[in-house]
Amino acid sequence: MSPNNIKQRSLHQLSITELNAGLRNKDFSSVELTQHFIERIERLDTRFNSFISTCSEQALAAANYADQQLANGNAGILCGIPIAHKDLFCTNGIRTSCGSKMLDNFVPPYDATIVENCSNAGAVVLGKTNMDEFAMGSSNENSFYGPSVNPWGENCVPGGSSGGSAAAVAAQLVPAATASDTGGSIRQPASFCGVTGLKPTYGRVSRWGMVAYASSLDQAGPITKNAEDAATMLNVLASFDKKDSTSIDEPKPDYTATLDQPLNGLRIGIPKEYFSDGIDPEVAKLTQEAISFYETLGASIKEVSLPHTQLAVPAYYVIAPAECSANLSRFDGVRYGYRCENPTDLEDLYKRSRAEGFGEEVKRRILVGAYALSAGYYDAYYRKAQQVRRLIKQDFDTVFKDVDLIASPTAPTPAFGLGEKTKDPVSMYLEDIYTLPVNLAGLPAISIPCGLTQQNKPVGLQLIGNYFSEALLLNSAHKFQQATDFHQQTAPNID
Amino acid sequence: MEANEIAKLAQLARINIEADMVDEVAESIGSILNLVDQLQAVDTRGVEPMSHPMDAVQRLRADVVSEKNQRDELQAIAPATDKGLFLVPKVID
Amino acid sequence: MEWETVIGLEVHVQLATATKIFSGASTAFGAEPNTQACAIDLAMPGTLPVANEQAFRYAIMFGLAIDADIGKRSYFERKNYFYPDLPKGYQTTQLDQPIVGAGHIDIELDDGSTKRIRIHHAHLEEDAGKSLHEDFQGMSGIDLNRAGTPLIEIVSEPDMTNSDEAVAFAKKLHSIVTSLGICDGEMSQGSMRFDVNISVRPKGQVELGTRTETKNLNSFKFMEEAIALEVERQIDEIEDGREIIQQTRLYDADTKTARSMRSKEDANDYRYFPCPDLLPVIFDDAYIMQIKDNLPELPEARCARFISQYALSDYDAKQLAENAAIANYFEACTEQCGDAKLSANWVMGELAASLNTHELSIQNSPVSAGQLASVISRIKDKTISNKIAKQVFDALWNKEGEDADSIIEAKGLKQVSDTGALGTMIDEVIAANQKQVENYRNADADKRPKMLGFFVGQIMKLSKGQANPQLVNQLLQEKLNG
């Protein structure tokens, strides 16, 4: 989009790149921009429920400060740009609920590292987005604050767990939002809502201040309108952090610098296992067409095999619950968060605070995790799952000897209906079959829109890269978006 | 999943499960365990378990005090405190 | 029936680091509740641990001191259980690959023989906070200042057969960790805590009896009492035809009774698994060698050196070398006064007695090594007698002066060595005790020295202890014999 038609479009339609240009060109101020989005959220979010909390006053103050910085010429990469944070990133002085009754009253006195990174870059935080409780879910229906809904169809889920972030970007309530991905929680909602979602390499982005679900799988990343904005966001989010022992001290490239590199010679692998039973025919067709389109961009396509794919869901549903069962033990009603009324004794305090404070899916995963780790079952479940995890990683290692990227659908279906899968948790778990292996291996992946179904539902193309290949992923996604307009299609009725 | 197994897990996890919910919980946990039981068929002999995506090594921190007293801020959000202590129902060792 | 006792120890040693094992909060003892418990220590959502290198160094030092294998690759696991003093709901500890592997410690028994106690392993872990049971609005109060303090848990093999051996082992451990400087050894502050596993079996039986664990003993005396009590209880149970039930017990030093711990009643399933927030810790040989080359002198080596360097007796050398703080004090004192024997006598005598009376450790002694050296120097140059020296020491203890000289000066305690003044005193005593003088002069030469004591005593009395005793002796003999 060339800068000269910025003025013909509404502010909410503009990408971060365009907004940055507009702010620096003094076409509008950050305060105007922020007011514009605050007004939209107030007017439209009653339909989408994509925000759990807003913080308009702080946002306007930050915007005002950003305008001064812009005037002084010390503007950071996101100076004056409104963003939203998924409600599991701790924000100093702003409630951080994790979509849970347990943390309904929790106002942390500290910032997550990525929140700090965004503030240092000058971003203006509009609020905290809706999510499945403690990031456990694929539909956003496990939120204590009610589900966020999909702007593309208000009887549909936005996906999860970062459903609020994806819905808010798709409804143009914010240009970009942070999100987190433990088993697909950035990519699947991005796919469902027709936006771009990037899950970086495990360790690329700090986990400090991100409320943990499954520590060895959790990774933060951006949800944006397009790959170029994702690159800008990753430039801000990615940092080596001494406060996170699993943060990796790798050089950080400028992800925007290589966006336009030609894709000639790029080798793309299509895993045959990702197009097997259970995939929606329209999803298969649209993603295959998108992959073929890469040939016109200079890439070569070949079929590859990731033989342990089917084991990713079972391995994940041992490892993630096991880690979460310990990670969530700290929510005990003693130091912060929900405490039950009038506990009769210590045991009652624990058992009722946790029973009343956690929702059903969270409790289910805690119990499964406790089972998988308990005496006599550890080897059969936890150890076995960790071994299978290595087999899954080795599958990728093997394939990446022959290809540069792997392409697949992000999810086997487009957005499904609200309430459609809530009765059967296992059917919900299978939604993540193409995204989970990436988390188990710790690889980076991006989901970009690649078309709409007959029913006008977005479908996402997933590109998976080798470790620390975010620049290549963003470059490949950007080149696709330069040549197509799937990412510019917007949800109906959002004006 | 038997009711007594659910009770044991509920105790380990300190989560109260009402009697009329036990069957439902047992069923949903049972269905998840059925799903994960696919793992049992895999031959993993000789495969090193993988705890972290990257086989990275722990960085260690210098032994220097970096935290100041933050009691007031941290206890402002606590359910019950007195004289700087967090309060809980009587602890019996 | 004759019974045999089998004892194994699990010892928690708080490491003397400045900060917690996983956070940068201070570990200083005695702070106001929860003022040294940061967001990480409170397990606030989103916080993450980062391991303290010094804790590893200290653990490795201990491993090298007990001739153990050092875990070149170790990692942390989560031990899951709920307790209000355990903020995360799990303790971060080591199970599968601890930092210190099998080693051994030799203890000396009363008969002079030594016995080797095998160490199974020692692992790093975090300490819990404290539950205060005094009434706070009918509730318990939780102080998390201690939460996250680094510990090594040292696990012995069940190689001890009575409380004497167990206490000797515990004392030896105390001596090793304080000599290494990895623990302050302050037992009353919980810096070392002992869990004692005890079982009994008929003498000659090979298989072990059912054991119980008595937890959290923080003095050698309590340990001795608790072992005696538990051994007696177990024998009574068996002789009365009952079975020993495996349990965790708590010893109450005030009532000298023990009971089963309620909170440990249900068999725990700790669900250990590798902590995903922490990565494996790897040390190479060079790192370990560097620590080995800089290891402080251990008690046994120091004892041997004291004997050769200072010509101390075996007994004195052992007493002094056992406790690093005492040994350091002794050496500092000796260096400044130049007399090892006198320093040893004073450190083990007057100083030890005063510290004991006031229940102080040598680190908190009101009289510094330099001050004691100043007293000893004045004894050596005969400015004061031993008796006066004790007065000077007491004055220093009470902070009445900076050093021996200022006190001697202020109180006028300088020894009288003026022959004229002494002669006048002697004449006075001789004049007042003509009968004794006569007896002395009539006595056989070999009886005389003993009789001389009477006159010396009189003169010392007259001089208020300040007369130079050697000179008094000499002058007296001249006058009486002459």
Descriptive notes:
The complex is a heterotrimer of chains A (495), B (93) and C (482). Chain A is α/β, with parallel strands linked by helices. Helix content of chain A is 37%, strand content 13%. Chain A has a domain at 3-266 and 473-488: Amidase signature (AS) enzymes (Alpha-Beta Complex), CATH 3.90.1300.10. Chain A has helices spanning 16-24, 30-48, 56-72, 113-120, 163-170, 187-193, 227-237, 281-296, 312-327, 346-357, 360-373, 379-399, 425-429, 436-441, 470-483, and strands at 51-54, 82-86, 124-129, 176-181, 196-199, 219-224, 267-271, 300-304, 405-409, 445-452, 458-465. An 8-stranded mixed β-sheet of chain A has the order 4-6-5-10-11-9-7-8, sandwiched between helices. In chain A, helix 8 (281-296) links the parallel strand 7 (267-271) and strand 8 (300-304). The model of chain A has no long low-confidence stretch (mean pLDDT 96). The two termini of chain B are 32 Å apart. Chain B has a domain at 1-41. Chain C has 482 residues and is α+β, with helices and mostly antiparallel strands. Chain C contains 15 helices and 15 strands. The model of chain C has no long low-confidence stretch (mean pLDDT 92). Chains in contact: A-B, A-C, B-C.
Write the layout of secondary structure elements.
The complex is a heterotrimer of chains A (495), B (93) and C (482).
Chain A: H1 16-24, H2 30-48, E1 51-54, H3 56-72, E2 82-86, H4 113-120, E3 124-129, H5 163-170, E4 176-181, H6 187-193, E5 196-199, E6 219-224, H7 227-237, E7 267-271, H8 281-296, E8 300-304, H9 312-327, H10 346-357, H11 360-373, H12 379-399, E9 405-409, H13 425-429, H14 436-441, E10 445-452, E11 458-465, H15 470-483
Parallel strand pairs in A: 2-3, 7-8, 7-9
Antiparallel strand pairs in A: 1-3, 4-6, 5-6, 5-10, 9-11, 10-11
Helix pairs in contact in A: 2-3, 5-6, 7-15, 9-11, 9-12
Chain B: H1 3-12, H2 22-36, H3 71-75, E1 81-82, E2 85-89
Antiparallel strand pairs in B: 1-2
Chain C: E1 3-14, H1 53-65, E2 73-74, E3 77-80, E4 90-93, E5 103-108, E6 114-126, E7 130-136, E8 139-143, E9 150-156, H2 163-180, E10 192-202, E11 212-217, H3 220-239, E12 248-252, E13 257-260, E14 273-274, E15 281-282, H4 285-293, H5 299-310, H6 314-322, H7 324-337, H8 340-357, H9 369-380, H10 386-397, H11 404-411, H12 419-432, H13 434-442, H14 448-462, H15 469-481
Parallel strand pairs in C: 11-12
Antiparallel strand pairs in C: 1-9, 1-10, 2-15, 3-4, 3-14, 5-6, 6-9, 7-8, 10-11, 12-13
